[in-house]
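Task: complex structure prediction.
Instruction: return structure tokens for all chains below.
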Amino acid sequence: MKKLKRSARLVEMTQFLLARPHTLVPLTYFADRYGAAKSSISEDLSIIKEVFEEDGTGELQTLAGAAGGVKLIPRLSKEHALAFAQSLCKQLEQPDRILPGGYLYMSDLLGQPATMNEAGKIFATVFADRAIDVVMTVETKGIPLAYATGAQLNLPVVLVRRDHQVTEGSAVSINYVSGSQKSLHTMSLSRRALPEKSRVLIVDDFMKAGGTIQGMVDLLIEFNATVAGVGVLVESGEIDTNERLLHDYVSLANLTAVDSKSKQIKVKLGNYFG
Amino acid sequence: MKKLKRSARLVEMTQFLLARPHTLVPLTYFADRYGAAKSSISEDLSIIKEVFEEDGTGELQTLAGAAGGVKLIPRLSKEHALAFAQSLCKQLEQPDRILPGGYLYMSDLLGQPATMNEAGKIFATVFADRAIDVVMTVETKGIPLAYATGAQLNLPVVLVRRDHQVTEGSAVSINYVSGSQKSLHTMSLSRRALPEKSRVLIVDDFMKAGGTIQGMVDLLIEFNATVAGVGVLVESGEIDTNERLLHDYVSLANLTAVDSKSKQIKVKLGNYFG
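Output:
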């Protein structure tokens, strides 16, 4: 037990809660830790709650009763999410991103942990109220996004591999067609990585026709698992919607045109913003 | 400007600082934000500083003068780090991790964002005072660890790929010998991913003879870059130290024996713990 002044207690409780999103913390935990009355702890929590809501950090849910306690649900305000997405769009429009073949270089943006964490908070906000057991992505570039989302939702992350690896044990492999290139690929998931009947949130950095994500959806069938949601950082709007394999997803940015000749890239907000 | 009571201000400042490790925040930023005197802000910061140091979160450095301000340097206490590593060792010793060929299944542990973040905090503590420009890893399983470390050090992450990808632009590829299997592999890094003369912290989930990490070291030479440090989550002590290609690294756990027949795994603390 540590006796702390209210001011120090507030700092410590704030830190404690931020490190444990989507985790129920009993009031008695704090009361015992600080040797304080539950009423004092409740007052502390209402101060923290007000600041978190005011700042667009999240909602501090209070559950009453014997099994009660407090739980931080990260909910990034739409205003914060919009500012983030606008900045992302602007960065994506930088002309020197165009690579041969009309591909876009995004690794510098995906390489910023703070950017990934912010995007993860948005996905955690979007899917906060769905029943989800695990976040899934396929290697490689969606991985930081999946972990950032998993951290905010307090969920494990499962990685689908392009090849079967010796360090994964027995695995289920499927073939899938990459929609935009019409080429055949393989993806594989370790048997023990995903319990049967899991509800899965799929996250990826980029989606064109959606073949890769559709591959993951098909893979889930092999595990009797279901899709609880799909979130992509950037979708490519360059594709005919009839050609799109997947229709139910949330995107933060939409790449509408890449013109290699005139070096012009056009990006608009993703479907999360309406 | 928001007028807040000290209690609310403490919650907000705590949150603000935790989200920005290794970032200098001028006192005037807080003073302007809250319309408070610098002396009040200094008092707030000394409360936060005391709690962070007491809790083993980190050091709140105060830099005096016109360009002064406050900077959070995450420093996880050795006590916390030890508790984390002991729990990691214990989990690694679970007999059902043994895969055919004596490999160890670790994906469930690597799939826990909170575990990765904790390990990242330890690496950020170990390398806090070195001059580093970027954190590097090779796909796939070291990626969450590299991002967790990068987030705590406020540094970007650079990913070395196994194959050359169209979305990476022009790249430098090298061949390297995986020390334990004596087999030849390729790794590749995008030209624009790493500026010349960068000082690089290499992070990976597992090291046996060190061939993969030595490959990254060799790749850095092509970029006139230098190694600022090497951190691995688990090293395999099953190898003769004469066969080890790399000697200067920090590990958190050391896998000393995997016996497939008797289903026994032995893990001890890594070299970080002396």
